[in-house]
Protein 1
Amino acid sequence: MADLRRAAILGGNRIPFARAGGPYARASNQDMLTAALDGLIARFGLQGQRLGEVAAGAVLKHSRDFNLTREVVLGSRLSPWTPAYDVQQACGTGLETTIHVANKIALGQVESGVSGGVDTASDAPIAVNEDLRRVLLQINSAKSMPQRLALLRKLRPGQIVPETPRNAEPRTGLSMGEHAAITAREWEISREAQDELAVASHQHLAAAWKRGFFDDLVTPYLGLQRDQTLRPDASMESLAKLRPVFGKNGDATMTAGNSTPLSDGAATVLLSTDEWAKQHRLPVLAHTVDAETAAVDYVYGGEGLLMAPAYAVPRLLARNKLTLQDFDFYEIHEAFASTVLATLKAWEDSRYCKERLCLEKPLGPIDRSKLNVNGSSLAVGHPFAATGGRIVATLAKLLAEKGSGRGLISICAAGGQGVVAILEAA
Amino acid sequence: MKLKVKVPGLPEAARLRRYQPGHPLVDGPVLIASAGGRVRDVLSAVIPSPSSPSPAAGEGGSSRWAAILFDGTAMRAIADLGKLHAFTSQTFRNLRPSGRLILFGTPPEDCSEPEASATQRALDGFIRSAGKEARLGSTANLMYVAEGAETVLESTLRFFLSGRSAYVDGQVIRIRPAKPVPTQDWEHPLKDRVAVVTGAARGIGAAIAETLARDGATVVVADVPAQGATLTEVANRLGGTALQVDITADDAPQRIAKHLVDRYGGVDVFVHNAGITRDRSLVNMTPEQWTSVLNVNLQAQIRINKALVEQKVLRDNARVICISSTSGIAGNRGQTNYAASKAGIIGMVQAMAPLMAKRAATINAVAPGFIETAMTKAMPFATREIGRRINSLNQGGLPVDVAETVAWLAQPGSGGVNGQVVRVCGQSILGA
Ligand SMILES: NC(=O)c1ccc[n+]([C@@H]2O[C@H](COP(=O)([O-])OP(=O)(O)OC[C@H]3O[C@@H](n4cnc5c(N)ncnc54)[C@H](O)[C@@H]3O)[C@@H](O)[C@H]2O)c1
């Protein structure tokens, strides 16, 4: 096998993230991902080029979009000779596609590639319910018209109710927010701490927009020029007014202000070998170092649905002989403020680290001033599969600005999974 | 498309001959005459089979000339001007639609005798008047070719002969000696050149980017991040790169310089096109309206030029082209801020020209008159109709007319044109 090569991150492009039902309400996943990819092509002058591959995906996907990413490539200005495939790992999709492309680059299988993801909560697929689906299939295979009509006559109103996708775990019936609320209570994450994290996210994101940080990371789409969820004036007072939406008891702490809203958006990342970057005169922002994926048994195993990153990170650190403190930036996806805080608390908890993570001593605290320095999903919004690409491109640029150092990415995902990765400055 | 409105008493606008790739240089026979000058040989070399005036046919007879050229570079006495009169008075009426009258002279300031200067300067008044008399989309322009500049005349001659100069009328261009750079392919004179256009997401900037790309340049299109969606389309259509940057941002010169050095190792053509208007009468103009216009239209250009020069981003033989406006020359009611900024551009261009010349580079200003864009579409009907008509061609220009002028100045072979202001205004009566 070929020697491993370093995968370089050259940059990214996304469209501003919108609230569900907002300006992208009529845009499909394919529309949004094409816009993000075309913006990337324009930024880097990739028109007509054949890249090694494009890997992307969506969490909420229509069945007609079975070949979503390839269709996007065909509709973009890339060479139609660029192969593409879909990946779906819930909210981990965007980071997982980046890992795929980076690994292929490392192995010498491709020289360049694009990773990314897209999601629309506005144009989510609506399925017919299972009873109706069966009848429709029978009608389709019926031999004669009378047979078909007979089948149709058997339909009952209850069978015609559509099934909308729910943000619920199939095995527990609980929504992700309800799961997160359980974890928040277990770890005694206070409302104030959650609101503080949310305010910081908005303030950091607002400052980053203001200083032009996103000038070469975001391309406006359908008239939206900035992330729609962003509230530059968010404050503890304004957040304190919101009523809890998740959690059943009187001590419920999770509100719409410290949870991510349903969002629409798309993000892409350009990766290559150092050599390819040099040939194309594209500066390298960062390199991928390593990645790890973990899953937890949130059904019977007594672990929180969104706690898998707590397990993935120590494994990743051990393999790379690093401590949790060896980073200049931490990008911890803010699915819910409480998720970030519970994860950080878990890493500081000696008992948890010993009993659950099998560590001799806890990972310890992080320097909070290095956490999500340009805001994260609470302020940006969270179109599920698009978040990974957003974070990778943001962190790569942060590292390039700093000129040295390393960053940790941690993303929790539905199904009790977590995807984490390390980038280092070029 | 263009609105065709008939206004009583005003002549109808002729359809102008505009260049398309593959078009010949001129669309008919060319007549060349001279009073024994220095540029005749260049003219004959460029024009496939020129005709000379034949007395038998009454100075050209009944032919319909696509262009008539007169080399007056050797004229030193007022009496010599009689030859110009004799020749042009006979032939001028035989110009085809969208024909060209091009005069060549010696810069009056280069002549040692007062009468010689006077004679040469007389050409200026002559050509401007001929431009006003020309009909059916024909234009009249004067080229003052300094001694020794004959070798760098060709790109300018070709521009004025061709449909590329459709809306450039009544202009006086000076051509000074410069390092000759041969052009291999006149269909793609900008081959291997890297060009930046600011404000390229739409309007005149998008047309400039398109024209430079058509002529072979690799284009970098820049505009404010808010215009990123259309900027992406322009970049992807032209196979260039999109640079989202507000040129007034503190780090804009740095970001632009870095983009050009990283991606291209430097730049050959920089077109400062981004511009805004915030019209208000002087007494009602707010400091914000004043400052924003001066910042975008002038201050940003100065800062970017400084960075490009200091950091050696501009390559040898570079071309900087700054979009000014006839408002900056003639002034305009409600535009004290805009006209100040556009006049300031001319000052900057003239001050930088000698420095640029040291590196075989040039800097020039292009001053559009009334150009049919979203901006002019928004004007009240009467103002717009007057703006369109008060020029020798009785019509507004198109963004491509400005773009063609920029593309000519951008050519490696146009090194003889430096520190000048070329109006693209159909010889507007404003700012003449
Ligand atoms: N339209 C005319 O008739 C006319 C006449 C004379 C001169 N001009 C000049 O021609 C140029 C182009 O005019 P147009 O009619 O195409 O205007 P336009 O408004 O259609 O286009 C100008 C472009 O510049 C961009 N821009 C504005 N501020 C910017 C900034 N700070 N940073 C980066 N980009 C910025 C805008 O986003 C826009 O895309 C301007 O300089 C204008 O003053 C136009």
Note: Chain B has two domains: 30-175, 194-424.
Protein 2
Amino acid sequence: MKVSFRLNGETRSIESAPLDRLLDVLRRDLGLTAAKEGCGEGECGACSVFLDGVLVCSCLVPMAQVRGRSVETLEALTRPGAPLHPLQRLLIETDGSQCGFCSPGMIMAGVDYMRRLARGEVEDDHEARLRAIAGNICRCTGYTKIVEAIDRAIEEAGP
Amino acid sequence: MSRGRDEVEVLAPSSLREAVQVLAEVGAEAIPLAGGSDLMVAFRDVSKLPRGFVLDLLGLEPELRGIELVEDEVQIGALTTVDDILHSSLLAAEARPLVEAARCFGSTQIRNRATIGGNVMNGSPAADSLPALLALDARVTLLSSEGPRTVPLYSFYADYRRPVAKPSELLVSIRIARAPANPIESFRKVAARRAQAIAKVILAGRAWDVRAEEEGVRIGEIRLAAGSVGPTPMRLFETERILRSELLGPRLAAEAVAVLRSEITPIDDLRSTAAYRRLVAGRLLEDFLGSLLLQA
Amino acid sequence: MTERAMRLVGNRPPQVQARERVTGEAQYVDDLAIPGLWHGVTLRSPIARGRIVEIEPDPDFDWSRVVLVDARDLPGRNVLPLILDDQPVLAEREIRHPFEPVMLIAAPDRALALEARNRLNLRYEAKPIAVEISDALEARVKVFGEDNVFKQIDIAKGDLEAGFAAATIELERDFWTGPQEQLYMEPQGMIAAWEGDQLVLRGSLQCPYYVQAAARAVFGLEPEQVRVIACELGGGFGGKEEYPSLLAVHAALLARKAGRPVKMVYDRAEDMQATTKRHPSQTRIRAGIDAEGRLTALAVDLVLDGGAYCTLSPVVLSRAVLHAGSAYACPNVAVRGRVVATNTPPNGAFRGFGAPQALFAMETMMDLLARAAGLDPLEMRRRNALRAGDETSTGQVLEQAAAADVLERAAEAADFRARRELYDRPQTGSIRRGIGLSLIMHGCGFTGAGESRLKGRLTLDLDARGEQLLVQVRTGSTDMGQGMRTTFKQLAAEILGLELDEVEVAAQDTALVPDSGPTVASRTLMIVGGLVARAARQALTSLGLEEGAGAEALRLALAGRGRLEIEEVHEPPATLFDEDHYRGQAYPSWGYACTICEVEVDMTTFEPRIVDVVTCQDVGRAIHPGIVEGQIQGGIAQGLGYAAFEEVQMHDGAMVNANFNRYIVPTAMDLPPIRVLLHESGQGAGPFGAKGIGEMPVDGAAPAYVSALAQALRTSFRELPVTPEAIAESFLRPRPGKADA
Ligand SMILES: Cc1cc2nc3c(=O)[nH]c(=O)nc-3n(C[C@H](O)[C@H](O)[C@H](O)COP(=O)(O)OP(=O)(O)OC[C@H]3O[C@@H](n4cnc5c(N)ncnc54)[C@H](O)[C@@H]3O)c2cc1C
Ligand code: FES
Ligand code: FES
């Protein structure tokens, strides 16, 4: 089936089976490999992307449900050559990315929280920040530095 | 022989009428798909793919997503997401246990996609929303081309993950009782970690019309429900009855805990043990009864 | 060494590839686009032990679309070479563990390969199995030799019975630990391609030269005929030390038969079921202390479960026995270690490598001894901590020992004394609290004479022929998130007087870099980093320059010859350690760490919550403190997972909870911020006095956690992990014999 959708701001039309996973289409067919497969079951968050602005696990989204919608991946967060998103920069500064396999998903989850915060949709506190990334498993860092990066990014963004 | 995933067709009706029409024709051959957080995991095993096709419900969001007051009940559309529930001010006022269930449900990513209808229809005994819904006197409304019917949630599951809905029926909404005056409510989920975890034990409760009397506390009305302690989520009718029968004090509390422990039928599985579940379910009830004594 | 102020060592520059990692540009093996690639999958044994009768292909399937490989496709011996050469590449007749690879299938797409696998019917005859350590020791089922013992190691020092005679308190206790899954976030993956008569392997792997050696042996190739490239690595933790060799050989067999490149990437369930885990253990400790609470005698009998094949188990065992006494002085010691064979998938390398098992037992024993002596855990450790000049169990005299320093610093930062006393008072209510502590030491680098055999190499290349000076470090060490590339750049740039971006670390490709030895055993910075420093100093010396010379001076000095290549080899004398008697210098440096953990237990549900973690670790020198802290925090998180969450559930030798929602690792909500104090003694054997710190952080977390839990609940736990179910059990049925508790 032909699926048309917006991908990182551009309209794309591709041939795919309706139950193909968005993750596979991104990685295999479109060459966008920032989203990773850590589990394929929605448990690890490495495959996180935005679907119509909502954070989802792309390993659980069938292409049939992408039709006519808009998908944003980590690739859209920073255009080549452009400065990094503050959370990306801070993840580097705090050494919050070790092997980096969780980082794309973790950044998407952090950015989602910051966007919801900016839209006034969340009540911000320490626990809410942790909850926001609890669907993203990191095996390297113990989370301390990741949380520090998120704290600093929120602080920089100001009230 | 099973088919490959790329051979399965997906139909996407754009109205509820169209959807039930399709189901009337080929219900047994189709699997409805909402947020996919159960189905897409299941479909990893090709033997779980439908013989016919998948019926994508997301086109029905305009009709089936939303939370509103209808008569004297709160109506939650089947496609309402768990995240919608978490952020609903109406539910915060009327259905705290359900909001608590939403809070500890999965992760952000899962809450964004998981629908309440999917949770009900998937019917896992460990589903977070179900004990809360049971404690809130939920009724589910099913629709087929022959019209709607409403079933109380406590009689909705025939067996392990077997809702009584027919293949030709869609779940369209869930209705719950509004909060009574001064309810005392609780929702506790016990799991292996603090997020992204499937429950080992859940206990949800709502009591109202609770009055302190000289000899103890009189419980006018109480609803109790538990998850992960039997083949289906369970309304704890026996335990409720005992608690309404006399004044609440240490003796009745102990009796109620004993009744609860015999009412549930937990098993040993990969997530926990029957002994732990039985023990903890009882202690959660003790805790809830303690808060009744304090708040009455 | 010159007392020059350091420009780069001790700084926190952005890590190499960090930008690529946070933008998603970093290329992990499954991200590579290789034209014409086929996908490979593995048919595995469904039983733990038996005989393959037949593999029947479904006649209704079109087999021309796929390629099948079985043991007959091997060009030579069916052996994956490692220590014992006992593991077949593919099971031929005998099955010795669940999920043992039997056949390989490749197809143009993965779905087809999986479909083909479903159409293969493996018929077998099952045989009796041995899956527990106790089964192995009974040896009714013989998995290996006559007694199922892969290896036994004994350490003896002093006069044990005299030591016990001098003791006023003597205890004997058993301890158990379960398996643990590495759970690197990136599953195992490999791409094999035959380019002419050269085999090119790209993969997620820690040790390119291990993979090369395995592929050479299986295919009978010369070194230059096997090129191994380590892709960006999504975590390893030991799980990608030896296992990728098997995967590489599998992918290469398929690629050879298919005549095109083949990729094998495991899905998560397969990765958890089939690949190595931390060795389960069973340890009995008998210990005596005198009236002052000082150890007089220590007898340890430790058994590890190696699984069906030997793999690296003897080396794991070696580290376990060498860590059995933890960081304490004891004049009379006897340690017996054995690693036994069972019908479970082979266990293997996992960060800590035998030490966490031994240290959990010994540290928990120290708490039990303290209780028996009426001392608090801190005081008990104060009295026994190794000090400079003391001797380890192998008679290694320590020139430096920071055990007491890290103990005091951590205890102060955590306010240990006061909190311990507070929580010793009667507690009521629905939350119980406890605080616990561990003190451990970890041997940095390969055990004993290992380094002398390895002879790790490294090349430093200075090239002034172009417009710019090019300085390149070439090493076969890999960067799996531990920051090797960044740290090596810092070292070279510091010594040569260059800016960081004037030094480059070559890709980890056997065609470009020498064999620096495997990236394991906390040796990379200390040993291979030491070679970086040596090479840089050697370059300066041969150019007649001073340390910190700088780019201009280097260019001038190089003007004549244009280019200078320095190769350094690490060749410590083999005589420092006597492997036959386990005497002498077991490790060039020991690191010391004290970890303190505070927990709360909800008495309604028996759910524990970790509320604070403080650790002080002697890292020698932190070349990049951000990297070091990250290693420590991540290691502690894994250690806490080991203690509190991670339970590999086995049925008939097979893992039955092989996915992320049944095998539970901590999320961000389950861990408090992990507070790290770096103790920089500057006395490690590595560059600028650095020690290896990759593994040490894992060691002390579990005993500290269990110690806290034991205080909160007024009992003791001697088995890992401690689940809420186990806590509830201990509450309902306090162990008989309160001497224990
Ligand atoms: C990582 C992860 C974490 C999870 N965590 C939790 C958790 O913490 N708590 C919990 O309770 N669950 C959890 N789940 C399970 C799942 O998210 C829930 O059951 C969810 O509510 C399912 O909703 P859905 O819309 O995704 O359903 P789908 O997967 O789309 O469908 C589920 C089932 O319901 C049927 N169905 C859906 N809608 C209708 C309808 N309107 N009419 C008729 N049939 C319908 C489908 O045919 C299917 O059988 C988790 C799942 C994952 C993958
Ligand atoms: S790969 Fe999608 S959540 Fe793990
Ligand atoms: S940095 Fe490796 S998994 Fe998070």
Note: Chain A touches chain C through 57 residues (CB under 8 Å).
